[in-house]
């Protein structure tokens, strides 16, 4: 099963930050995979919706022109302003991201997609946590980065040591289980 990250996505927050959601505005988006272009889409903005214009082909079928209408919904923010949402064309729920796992851009719930982190094994999750802490502490994780408070450094170092021990523990349990299965053969 693939995670949401492996599909072309449109994020309404990205569009809003770049001021693309103004009626009458027309723009295009493109995606890359491994540095190579992997798709593009044209978008026309109406008063309360976006019209997505793109081409789609499923495996060996012919290319199809697709015009998909996606409605917008706006909610008020507590401290002023308003926040945009897509109304998923499939389920009509308010969502921030639409993905193209098939012909249409729908929410992850309609396509039953999970986030990549939900597909990780315990070991991968522990290693990701460890790597994030290492990145935050810098190249020389035993030296306090300039500008970091000593208390913060000490807390992060303790969390890094725990994360390393947890990753090692999970790796050992996985290796032990793997060896046990190998012996039974």
- Side-by-side strand order of the widest sheet: 2-3-4-5-6-7
Distance between the termini: 28 Å
What is the number of beta strands? 8
How many domain regions?
Answer: 2
Shape summary:
extended
Give the amount of beta strand, in percent: 25-35%
Main sheet, how many strands, which sense, barrel?
6 strands, antiparallel
What is the mean predicted local confidence, pLDDT?
89
Helix content: 25-40%
N-to-C order of helices and strands: EHEEEEEEEHH
Low-confidence stretches: none
Class by alpha and beta content: alpha+beta
Query: Whole-number radius of gyration?
Result: 23 Å
How many helix segments?
3
Write the layout of secondary structure elements.
Elements: E1 8-11, H1 12-17, E2 26-33, E3 36-45, E4 49-56, E5 64-76, E6 82-87, E7 94-95, E8 97-100, H2 122-137, H3 150-184
Helix pairs in contact: 2-3
């Amino acid at each position: 099963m693939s995670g949401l990250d492996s599909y072309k996505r449109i994020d309404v927050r990205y569009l809003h930050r770049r001021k693309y959601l103004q009626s009458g505005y027309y723009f295009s988006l493109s995606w890359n995979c491994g540095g190579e272009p992997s798709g593009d889409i044209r978008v026309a903005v109406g008063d309360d919706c976006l019209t997505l214009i793109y081409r789609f082909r499923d495996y060996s079928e012919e290319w199809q022109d697709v015009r998909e209408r996606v409605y917008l919904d706006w909610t008020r923010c507590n401290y002023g302003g308003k926040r945009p949402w897509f109304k998923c064309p499939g389920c009509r729920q308010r969502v921030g991201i639409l993905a193209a796992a098939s012909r249409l851009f729908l929410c992850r719930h309609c396509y039953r997609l999970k986030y990549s982190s939900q597909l990780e094994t315990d070991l991968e999750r522990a290693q990701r946590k460890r790597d994030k802490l290492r990145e935050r502490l810098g190249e020389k994780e035993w030296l306090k980065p300039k500008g970091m408070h000593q208390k913060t450094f000490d807390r992060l170092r303790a969390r890094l040591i725990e994360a390393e021990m947890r990753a090692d523990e999970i790796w050992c349990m996985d290796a032990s289980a793997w060896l046990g299965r190998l012996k039974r053969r």
